[in-house]
Design goal:
Structural class: mainly beta
Number of helices: 2
Largest sheet: 12 strands, antiparallel, barrel
Shape: globular
Order of helices and strands: HEEEEEEEEEEEEHEEEE
Number of strands: 16
């Protein structure tokens, strides 16, 4: 059972904004490159928002701490569905609009087409999301927590606190937007393995352009670093030699990608995202796809 937990922890790649990522091979709970470029801000009207993030991650290239490939040929794939339910209120805190949301997930992971883990992932709850919304710029600040309630083969079995700040600059009457977002994860210790993954810092950036009232295109990228090494229990100090991994090492990864979105009407949107990772170390390097569905209770145009 311990060996199964170790292998599962090493290879799980991560879901949308939430749950089953790999706290050991370099990825925390938060997975960048999945949400749409304009998802880091909120509408300026109170109401309900539903977003469904549908993710597919694939890699056959595990990198050591120096960025050298040590696991080529073994293909890791992860699929996930992560619905997000958001309430934008008419309340203000410090001059900012107040919103909150929850983000459950369902995850399935395979290695070389053999099942490794599948089921309900950890739950992300963000009770505080503040938005200072203006005609030319938006600034948002949010804080939340990942609750380890996922199924045995999927949960990271640890609590993670998350703080996220984002900014947008608009021009051409908001048809164009520049985005920059920073996310910091404070990881707890896994009860199953005794590992405390090092905290993560993620920077995401992008440019969104509406070509028509309904059609949006964009370019995007991200960088993610572990700010400290994993803390390993004594009986796992030599696990690197057993599995050929980089447990305990600080990981990082970078990516560039594209986005295309379309509003079917003033309430429903579908958006596709693709990012290709590069310059990874102490983790997998692969490709991430997402196809996201959005419903806005208030018309957007």
């Amino acid at each position: 059972m311990v060996r199964k937990q170790l292998i599962t922890a090493i290879i799980l790649a991560g879901t949308a904004f939430t749950a089953a990522a790999d706290g050991l091979n370099g990825s925390g709970h938060y997975t960048p490159g999945v949400g749409n470029i304009r998802d880091f801000t909120m509408p300026d009207q109170a109401g309900f928002i539903y977003e469904q993030y549908n993710l597919y991650y694939a890699s056959d290239d595990f990198k050591d701490r120096n960025g050298n490939s040590i696991g080529q040929g073994q293909e890791l794939t992860t699929g996930a569905v992560a619905p997000l339910l958001m309430w934008v209120t008419d309340k203000e805190i410090l001059g900012a609009r107040y919103s909150f949301y929850i983000n459950p997930s369902y995850v399935n992971t395979e290695m070389d087409n053999q099942g490794v883990g599948g089921g309900v992932g950890d739950l992300y709850v963000q009770p505080l999301w503040l938005g200072w919304l203006n005609e030319q710029y938006d600034v948002t600040l949010g804080a939340g927590v990942y609750i380890p309630i996922g199924d045995d083969d999927v949960t990271l079995d640890m609590w993670t606190a998350q703080v996220q700040a984002a900014g947008y600059y608009y021009f051409m009457d908001k048809a164009s937007a520049l985005m920059l977002a920073a996310t910091y994860e404070f990881h707890g210790e896994s009860d199953a393995t005794g590992v405390k993954p090092g905290d993560h810092l993620t920077l995401e950036y992008g440019y969104s352009q509406y070509l028509t009232q309904q059609l949006e295109i964009g370019i995007r990228g991200y960088s993610q670093w572990q700010t400290e090494s994993d803390s390993l229990p004594a009986d796992m100090k030599n696990v690197n030699h057993m599995f050929g991994t980089s447990l305990g090492e600080k990981s990082e990864v970078h990516a560039l990608g594209l986005q295309v979105g379309y509003w079917f009407n003033s309430n429903w949107n579908i958006t596709a995202n693709y990012s290709k990772e590069y310059s990874a170390s102490a983790r997998y390097e692969g490709e991430i796809f997402s196809l996201n569905l959005t419903y806005s209770g208030n018309p957007v145009y």
